[in-house]
């Protein structure tokens, strides 16, 4: 495969766009750099790049594209939205419809607000939790990504009684002091943190199923313990379901796991590929938000008809029979293909999979928290990523990300992908 045009475009991009990309992971930082492929067109499970190369796509735009690219039903909704005007700045009936659909699917969303990104959704849930409890601090779990607002760009302190350090230049020490980070799947560490800070904690922010150091499920009882202990301490529980909502079932991870948070942040899939975020929760808590309450949140683009109509169309597709069963079957086939190839060629991999999402970790036996994921072999992943790309399989460029199957992938796509994995693993020693 030649990447000449991508190389040229990347050069040009760096002259006008900071770093050549509009989101840092696109610069292949997670795999040691290189030239990002410039995609030209996407349809179903496939990408075509500017050099004319063809790929099977498992990036799915980092999660939103669960129905495949340019799904006809969603495309039609976007076309109709364009005809009728994409932005009004007034309420529309479509927002009522969509909020109702979300609440029907995720009953804890007694009241909902639409925003424009996952970042905004999470940022606002924290503000609401602070407004409702009158407290300042939050607890989050190490390695979970919650967007790029100040409070969630804070790295772990060294123990339950220490607060975090800024994880980004421009995030102040005083903000980092408001955040306590504990390991995921560790109820004891969580309890210790609450014992120390309990009266100051406004909210506990958690990805109920982690998507940001690969796919990591909560251990039995962990989320129940988070809920019980947080509530005992008078703190709210906030689920960041930006990746998980509608990924594993028609509804949230909270439905799948049978645990209910006070507030939920949503994004990605619910926009059908257009920019969106949403947050919601118990009515009494949401009533803190303007115009009913004193916590402010607003948005020129919030609830715009294009994103809302695309979101409605996307959920309509996901509501069809057998969608999630099929995604699970494809996931099972892909996992088996990867495991068989790894066994055959003695490549040490661990695959974490839940339905149509999975992560391959190299050189580590089990991944149940961020430290495990960190200890997986990044060089092996980087090599694997680049070899897969050269053979026409587009993955997320980081050992911390997931492969996402879509309703557009076929068994044949997965069979071909497994064959390519086998080829890459069989050549491993020639690297
Ligand atoms: N929360 C989670 C769990 C995410 O994975 C992401 C994005 N990867 C965000 C929040 C931020 O969403 P956005 O990029 O739409 O701002």
TrEMBL record:
Gene3D superfamilies recorded: Aspartate Aminotransferase, domain 1, Type I PLP-dependent aspartate aminotransferase-like (Major domain)
Coiled-coil region: none
GO cellular component: cytoplasm
Catalyzed reactions per annotation: (S)-4-amino-5-oxopentanoate = 5-aminolevulinate
GO molecular function: glutamate-1-semialdehyde 2,1-aminomutase activity; pyridoxal phosphate binding; transaminase activity
Enzyme Commission number: 5.4.3.8
Pathway: Porphyrin-containing compound metabolism; protoporphyrin-IX biosynthesis; 5-aminolevulinate from L-glutamyl-tRNA(Glu): step 2/2
Top-level division of the source organism's lineage: Bacteria
Signal peptide: none
Family statement: Belongs to the class-III pyridoxal-phosphate-dependent aminotransferase family. HemL subfamily.
Record-given protein name: Glutamate-1-semialdehyde 2,1-aminomutase
